[in-house]
Amino acid sequence: MNNLVKAIRSLVFLSLVLIGFNAFAEDEVEEVVVTGSLIKVSAQNQAVPVDVIGRAELEAQGSPNMIDVILNLPSM
């Protein structure tokens, strides 16, 4: 199970890195909307680490890209 979690984290990180390369070519900033499903389970009861960050935390961190934000998460 531990190897599976590491593999999933690696794939997510790699996909975010590759997505970030395309962002350099764009000049205008687009709005990003993230949606999900409302599942009534707390983050503490998950089998894998779950970090919940909101707008205030993103603005307080002041990182220019999402890769820096993800690398600063406690679960990474």
UniProtKB/TrEMBL annotation:
Taxonomic path: unclassified sequences, metagenomes, ecological metagenomes
Name this polypeptide is given: TonB-dependent receptor plug domain-containing protein
